[in-house]
Specification:
7-stranded mixed beta sheet; 11 helices; alpha/beta; 300 residues; globular; 28% strand; binds zinc ion
Length: 300
């Protein structure tokens, strides 16, 4: 099953003609994670042909406007659609209050869309499902800001040959083996390694706005894809320091020292007319790098 990532907005601070405010949509099985919700994110989803009701959870990095101003419009549209279940919104400390303020600034009927807000209070595992985990880390951006990683759980691929050799019948018990459990069947104790091969899960790291800090390494470590901000070129490193952002060089070095497989840069300052210099600088330190653009799709 593919992990699909669609970039809905790749600009910093101010949107440009080509680039919208920050938002990324990640799909995996029945899950649709919206990573930040910059202004106009719902319209970007329409253009990308993604139904809003596909969103199962929203992960917010921080409450700077360029990452959240799309929330009121998106939630209003979701409330007007046939959304089933409760929408979970994860974010840093203060998220409940921020969301309350946003939703009290216009006429909004909460009954139509049950929302549960979860504020990240500690680093590490935030939640897990049967097939993946989400980890959260505190970033360094002057205000509470969270970086997340999506980690697919390892699974076991059944070998039909081994199954036959051991004269075992296929059945629903194989689901437990695939999930890594040892079980007893027909009086025999069967461990996953007896009839299956372990397939390690994939990891997607997502680093929104931040200055360099220790936590970034946990998110970047062994990531198959690292989505990371590179607001500035090193020529403007002092701006990065002033506003707590990374340069292309800092992001590339982070990927390189953490065994990241592929780095995808985003959140570019509007001062750059193209991303050519940003990419060139990053490639100097890490060659598996691309610059994201709006509606870029990646399958892992
Ligand atoms: Zn930003
Ligand atoms: Zn910010």
């Amino acid at each position: 099953m593919n992990i699909e990532i669609v970039f809905l907005g790749t600009s910093a601070m101010v949107p440009t003609k080509e680039r919208n405010h920050s938002a990324v949509f990640l799909t995996y099985q029945n899950e649709g994670l919206l990573l930040d919700c910059g202004e106009g994110a719902q319209r970007q989803m329409r253009i990308a042909d993604i139904k809003l009701t596909k969103i199962t959870r929203i992960l917010i990095s921080h409450w700077h406007g360029d990452h959240v101003l799309g929330l009121p419009g998106l939630l209003q549209s979701l409330a007007a659609s046939q959304y089933s279940g409760t929408l979970e919104i994860y974010g840093p400390k203060g998220s409940k209050k921020f969301l309350e303020n946003v939703l009290s600034s216009f006429v909004y009927s909460e009954e139509r869309l049950p929302i549960k807000v979860i504020e990240v209070s500690k680093e590490g595992l935030l939640f897990d499902t049967k097939t993946f985990e989400i980890h959260a880390y505190f970033l360094s951006h002057g205000i509470p800001c969270i970086g997340y990683s999506f980690i697919e759980k390892a699974r076991w691929k059944i070998s039909v040959q081994k199954l036959r050799k051991m004269k075992l019948k296929e059945g629903s018990w194989l689901n437990d083996i695939q999930a890594g459990q040892t079980i007893t069947i027909e009086g025999k104790k069967i461990a996953p390694e007896d009839i299956a091969t372990k397939i390690e899960g994939r990891k997607i790291g997502w680093i929104a706005d931040t200055a360099p800090c220790e936590s970034l390494n946990y998110i970047a470590q062994d990531a198959d894809i690292l989505i990371c901000e590179a607001t500035f070129h090193s020529l403007h490193e002092e701006k990065g320091e002033e506003y707590n952002h990374l340069t292309a060089k800092q992001s590339a070095l982070l990927a390189s020292r953490n065994n990241t497989k592929k780095l995808v840069l985003t959140h570019f300052s509007q001062r750059y007319k193209t991303t050519d210099e940003i990419l060139e600088e990053a490639q100097h330190y890490f060659d598996q790098v691309v610059c994201a653009y709006d509606f870029m799709k990646i399958k892992v």
